[in-house]
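Worked example 2:
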Amino acid sequence: MAPSGGTAADSPEAQTQDKARNAPSPDDDRKPDSPTEIKKPAWGYVFKRTLREFGKDQCTDLAAALTYFAVLAIFPALLAVVSLLGVFGQAETTTNTVLDILEGVAPGAAENETLESTIEGLATSQGAGLTLIIGVLGALWSASAYVNAFSRAMNRVYEVEEGRPFWKLRPVMLLITAIVLLLVVLMALLLVLSGPIAESVGNVIGLGDTALLVWNIAKWPVMVVFAILMIAILYYGAPNVKQPKFRWMSMGSFVALLVLGLTTAGFSFYVGNFGSYDETYGAIAGVIVLLLWLWLANLSLLFGAEFDAELERGRQLQAGIEAEETIQLPPRDATASRKKLDKELEDIDNGRELRRKYERESARQSQDN
């Protein structure tokens, strides 16, 4: 029970407790079920509020933090992927493919000697089995830091405090991390192993090079599907809110992919034609370009999340739910936030008693004088 006399009713923790008690069901029948049922004024409100909340939530800073954790996860993830593909004898192909991908999204990154030598060293190292195990464990732990940071960012977007205790939160974050890493590995396998496999299958069924041509075209939609699935899992599982039914492709996911595609194309064009990173940063120019692209990618993910959150607010407002101040979605768990609120109220009471003590002492000194 919270200490008496506290005045922290407007704190995020208190709002989370209020949502746990009073927020309507995520699938409330009053809310419009599909985007086509949302009326034009509500759409205008959603777009305007998305832009404002994106700035209010300091998403540029959040994206920078996510970029830091993404960088920590890159090399363990590369170690796992390259070691796995090395088991199949695809070391050289793996190196070239990874460098080509880096060059595609961040021109100049693949020319960095540090990145190139690191990737080549991973691809040609001996003891692929042990390296694979170490890489998978390292990637899982490092990438889980990114997922945890993404969860905190999503909580800010949905205006809720983290209430899940550690023993409940950590396994969920590790599960999400494992699924995301699995999808990343599958995407890497599609890029590296698709050619030889498609050619072999084509020869067996008598299609020859036709199978290779078809697969070279078809693998990109498959990779887009994997990317959509990754975003959907992050958007649904990371925040501490009970969301409406799981959607493979939410409006926010679509917006995030669209923004990511446009920013990647624009950034690649800018770096390839107008950027002077080599002159400014010298040997680390490729690394800087890669960091900038990761930052833009995380900005895209956060913008899509903001759009999803504000779309939910718009649905609630159209249904007559009081969501103008805060989005009314119940938290998955409010245990940790309740303990945090109790401690905050206790600190307030202790501070009040300390202030009153010195007020009394000051009053006595004034009377004595």
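The mean pLDDT is 81. The first helix runs from residue 12 to 22.
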